[in-house]
Automatic annotation (TrEMBL):
Residues 3-175 form the DHFR domain. This is dihydrofolate reductase. InterPro entries: DHFR (IPR012259), DHFR-like_dom_sf (IPR024072), DHFR_dom (IPR001796). One of its GO terms (biological process) is folic acid metabolic process. It comes from the Bacteria. Keywords: NADP, One-carbon metabolism, Oxidoreductase. It comes from Microbacterium sorbitolivorans. Its EC number is 1.5.1.3. PROSITE patterns: DHFR_2.
Length: 175
C-alpha cells in the first residue's frame, strides 16, 4: 500500500479557504508544500495529488496541473482539461495506487475532499500547518478525529510569520 498523506494549512479558526482561494500569501509556506509533495526517494518515482474540482480550478491556469506530480481531480462532471479525473476519493486512491511510478498519494484539499478522507480515516499521516491569525475564512478543515495522534511538531519562520507544522499519524489502537 502506498502512503496516503493529507496536507493542509489552517488558521486559528481551522479556516482553509476564502472565496475559492487561499486566504493568505506566505511564499515560504507555499514552498514547503511544494517541496514536501515533490520529494520522493528516487528520481524514477513521482507523487500524486488528489484534489476536489474547486481546488483544482483555484490554481492559476498556467500552473495547473501542478508540475512534477500526478494530479487527479475529483469531480462529477467533465472539466475539459488534460488532467486525470475520478468520481470519488476512493476511486482516486485506487487509480493512484495502480500507477507504478507513484510513491506517495497526497490528499490536497479542499474542505470537501479533506472531510471525506478524514471521515473514512483514509490518510495514514496528516501534515497540518498552523498559520497564526484569523483570516475570516469561509471554508474549514474538520476537527482531527481521535483516530489520529500528534506525533511531532516543528516551528518554521517565514519572514515575520511563525508557522507550526504538526504531523499526525493514524493510531491503529483506536481504529
Ligand atoms: N489551506 C489549504 O491547505 C487548502 C488546500 C486546498 C484547498 N484549499 C481551499 O479550499 C477551498 C476549496 O474547497 P471546497 O471544499 O470548496 O472544494 P473542493 O473540495 O476543492 O472541491 C469540491 C468539489 O469536488 C467534487 N467532489 C467532492 N466530493 C465528491 C465526490 N464524492 N464525488 C464526486 N465529486 C466530488 C465536486 O466537484 P463537481 O462540482 O465538479 O462535481 C465538488 O464541487 C478553496 O478556497 C481552496 O483555496 C485550501
Amino acid at each position: 500500500m502506498k502512503p496516503v498523506i493529507l496536507i493542509a494549512a489552517i488558521d486559528n479558526d481551522r479556516g482553509i479557504g476564502l472565496r475559492g482561494s487561499m486566504p493568505w500569501k506566505i511564499p515560504g509556506e507555499a514552498k514547503y508544500t511544494a517541496q514536501r509533495t515533490l520529494r520522493t526517494s528516487s528520481p524514477d518515482m513521482i507523487n500524486a495529488l488528489i484534489m476536489g474540482r474547486k481546488t483544482y480550478e483555484s490554481l492559476p491556469p498556467h500552473r495547473r496541473p501542478l508540475p512534477g506530480r500526478h494530479s487527479l481531480v475529483i469531480t462529477s462532471r467533465s472539466i475539459g482539461e488534460p488532467v486525470g479525473v475520478a468520481t470519488s476519493v476512493d476511486e482516486a486512491l485506487r487509480v493512484c495506487g495502480e500507477m507504478s511510478d507513484v510513491e506517495s498519494i497526497f490528499v490536497f484539499g479542499g474542505a470537501e475532499i479533506y472531510s471525506q478522507a478524514l471521515a473514512a480515516a483514509l490518510p495514514d499521516t496528516l501534515l497540518i500547518s498552523n498559520i497564526p491569525g484569523h483570516y475570516g475564512c469561509d471554508t474549514f478543515l474538520d476537527p482531527i478525529p481521535s483516530t489520529y495522534r500528534l506525533e511531532r511538531t516543528s516551528n518554521h519562520k517565514h519572514g515575520t510569520v511563525m508557522v507550526r507544522h504538526e504531523t499526525y499519524v493514524r493510531d491503529f489502537g483506536k481504529e
